[in-house]
Amino acid sequence: MTSRCSxxxxxxxxxxxxxxxxxxxxxxxxxxxxxxxxxRRAAVTSGQKGLAFWLVVAAIALLLVIVIQSI
Length: 71
Hints:
Elements: E1 13-16, E2 22-25, H1 46-70
Antiparallel strand pairs: 1-2
């Protein structure tokens, strides 16, 4: 079974001495044991999500109160 690079599809690998002998792709340099093509995003914590939700709810409630009082 020939392994392929998950990022570029190449079958050419070499051992990189600077990474302790880990195999890396000869074309794109991605380590064999690392998944390629995925970009990690910073996760939003549930506390920040909850705060944003309640701020939006408060703003809508404030607008409703202002609209109802102006009628």
